[in-house]
Amino acid sequence: MPVQIKHSNGGSFYHFAIDIAKEGVQLFDLTPYVKRRVGDNNFGLPVDWYRQGQLMNVNGAYKPVIDGLVGNYSFDKNDNLKMADDASVVYSVGEPEDCGPAGQVTYYFPEQMFPKEGIFKGYLGLIDDKGNRYSGVDIWFKVLAGNARMGIACDFYIGKLEKAITTAEEDLRNAKKSMQDVVDEFEAKVDALLKDLNQQLIRLLC
Question: Where does this protein have coiled-coil stretches (predicted)?
Answer without folding.
Answer: 158-203
